[in-house]
Write a structure and sequence with these properties.
heterodimer; A: 98 residues; alpha/beta; 4 helices; B: 132 residues; five-stranded parallel sheet
Chain lengths: 98, 132
């Protein structure tokens, strides 16, 4: 049972991203959208990327990050909003963190 | 003489006008736009006003943003009108920038980056505070 996590809030003001990471499973996927893009620069993101043999797919909505002048990371896939539709079909559940 | 003394006292009691604290990121809520509207209204009535950017509010000042990419009318561009409204006291919390790995490159001029203690002191000089 894999889950798609839609992260929409900045971890600098809310605990949502930390809570998301605490329930994250190996085959899950994360999409950073809206203010969730700010999490690219959060220490929690470093720990997520460095997590040993992680198979978690990490994605960011490219134009949401670009609008906020946030640089994306090599370990994070840049996707478009319509790619999220495919992701919702590829996972059994969706959790929106907002 | 007595009248001038009372005048001076009343000026001191007035403190340093109005402070507006911006604490929210720019595109996901209306708080930033509302704070801007309040600032420009006070400015057009020649009221002394200072702007403080703290927490996620510092994202409002970062250069190279483009709200049109997320279908938002980019009110941040209006920040460049501050000088015409005599809004010259703009303060940013340095710790908030450091936490977010942001450098001190802003889309407006004359921004004062202050360490936490000085930021607090500058805020406490004001008689009235609105937080958005």
């Amino acid at each position: 049972m894999s889950t798609l996590h839609l992260v929409r809030k900045s971890a600098f003001t809310t605990n949502d991203f930390a809570q998301c990471l605490s329930v994250l499973d190996q085959q899950d996927a994360i999409v950073l959208m809206d203010d969730g893009c700010y999490n690219l620069k959060h220490p929690l993101m470093d720990s997520l990327i460095k997590r040993a043999n992680s198979t978690v797919s990490i994605n960011v909505i490219a134009n949401h990050a670009q609008a906020r002048a946030i640089e994306t990371l090599a370990a994070v896939n840049k996707i478009k909003m319509n790619d999220v539709v495919d992701l919702t079909f590829n996972h059994q559940k969706v959790i929106t963190w907002q | 003489m007595i009248s001038s003394d009372t005048q001076e006292e009343s000026n001191l009691a007035q403190g340093n006008g109005l402070a507006i604290i911006n604490s929210k990121a720019p595109f996901s809520s209306d708080f930033g736009k509302d704070a801007l509207d309040v600032a420009l209204i006070f400015g057009s009535f020649e009221q002394k006003i200072s702007l403080f950017f703290q927490g996620d509010g510092v994202y409002q000042l970062i250069a190279k943003q483009d709200g049109t990419l997320v279908s938002i009318k980019d009110y941040l561009k209006t920040f460049s009108a501050f000088e015409f409204y005599d809004i010259e006291d703009i303060y940013v919390c340095q710790q908030s920038l450091v936490n977010r790995q942001l450098d001190e490159t802003f889309h407006i001029e004359n921004v004062n980056v202050l360490a936490s203690v000085e930021f607090g002191l500058a805020l406490n000089r004001h008689q009235h505070v609105l937080r958005f």
